[in-house]
Write a structure and sequence with these properties.
This protein is α+β, with helices and mostly antiparallel strands. Helix content is 29%, strand content 22%. The chain folds into 2 domains: 76 residues, Roll (Ubiquitin-like (UB roll)); 66 residues, [2Fe-2S]-binding domain (DNA polymerase, domain 1, Orthogonal Bundle). The chain has 5 helices and 6 strands. The structure holds FE2/S2 (inorganic) cluster (2 copies).
Length: 174
């Protein structure tokens, strides 16, 4: 643990900057970084590891744009401290394609025109993949319910539901 300098704390008081080494297994590769203990997993992925596929929307846990998988479970990376992910498995949108072949969910999103601006799409797809792994994509209503934490300002929802149901009913790889 390294303490160096100071920074304004959330309550306005100055506090020491504490940096810690963090080891993550990201998309199958071991990555070692050093982060401020207050760094979110989202910022660590984007800024320290240059994995900018994961998007920062609200940065407050309300939009789902930052969804990644941590030890196989979907989490909001903006609400997850990078230090708390030490030693754990992280999967991001960059880790879905294999050997240059898009994941079936990525293909389904493209096939169903389930994106417009595309900004929310990585988080939607990561949630959608988890949803199927959780066994919660049994009906359109289930998909809508369990995807409700992922917001899309463009309103592509009917196409998103169709893409997810396509993968869920086609028995494709999730
Ligand atoms: S950026 Fe994390 S929920 Fe919006
Ligand atoms: S596709 Fe634009 S916000 Fe979702």
């Amino acid at each position: 643990m390294v303490v160096n300098g100071s920074a304004a704390a959330a309550d306005g008081t100055a506090g020491p900057v504490v940096r810690v080494p963090v080891s993550l297994r990201v998309n199958g590769t071991e990555r070692r970084i050093e982060v401020d203990t207050r760094t979110s997993l989202l910022d660590a992925l984007r800024d320290a590891l240059a994995l900018t596929g994961t998007k920062k929307g609200c940065d407050q846990g309300q939009c789902g744009a930052c969804t990644v998988h941590l030890d196989g479970k979907r989490v909001l990376s903006c609400l997850t401290l990078a230090a708390s992910a030490d030693g754990r498995e992280v999967r991001t949108i960059e880790g879905l394609a294999r050997d240059g072949v898009p994941h079936p969910m990525q293909e389904a999103f493209a096939r169903h025109d389930a994106l417009q601006c595309g900004y929310c799409t990585p988080g939607q797809i990561m949630s959608a993949v988890a949803l199927i792994e959780e066994g919660r994509a049994g009906s359109d209503d289930d998909v809508r319910e369990f995807m409700s934490g992922n917001l899309c300002r463009c309103g592509a929802y009917p196409h998103i539901v169709a893409a997810i149901r396509d993968v869920a009913t086609g028995g494709r790889r999730a």
